Amino acid sequence: MIGGDLSNEVPKRVAVSVDCILVRTPTIKKILGVIPYSDEEVEYNRQIISLVWNFAFKQDITLELVGFGYSVKDMEAFMEDLDRIGTNPFKYAKAYKVVADLVAELPYRHELLYVIDIPSRGLRYGGRYLDMRSI
Questions:
Q1: Quick check: is 1 in a domain?
Q2: What is the pLDDT of residue 66?
Q3: Which of 20, 68, 111, 127 would be 10's cystine partner, CB 3.0–4.6 Å?
Q4: What's the domain count of the chain?
Q5: Consecutive 10-residue averages of pLDDT for the chain (135 residues)
Q6: What pLDDT is attached to residue 134?
Q7: CATH number at residue 129
Q8: CA separation (Å) from 13 to 34, 76, 81?
Q9: pTM
Q10: SS (H, E, C) the chain
């Protein structure tokens, strides 16, 4: 805030990985009723979405949905799908090729307070990693 002007203040953000809000269930399906193949059903974990939404509301922060290995179209589809079902707490979405791309941006993104991700990738974010249990 420079001279009382609120327009140049950057809202604080928390990045949430797509992998945190999705539940993947492996299934076995059959082609033509004979040939089995493995597939997976993907659903949103509404409990975690609600938890993240409440955290953002209490802390007065903006949420950003990040995906690794997804395209920009996939991220737009996630946002539209969450809007359609009425539970979209995310204001922004960004696609990264790999986790290292987000980690490389962290020193330059002062507005990004935390990254909420799965525990196996937590150490890559250093002090900005926030586990689901600590919310």
A1: no
A2: 96
A3: 111
A4: 1
A5: 65 92 80 73 88 92 94 93 90 95 94 93 91 81
A6: 79
A7: 3.40.50
A8: 50, 19, 22
A9: 0.83
A10: CECCEHHHCCCCEEEEEHHHHEEEEEEEEEECCCEEEEEEEEEECHHHHHHHHHHHHHHCCEEEEEEECCCHHHHHHHHHHHHHHCCCCEEEEEEECCHHHHHHHHHHCCCEEEEECCHHHHHHHHHHEECHHHC
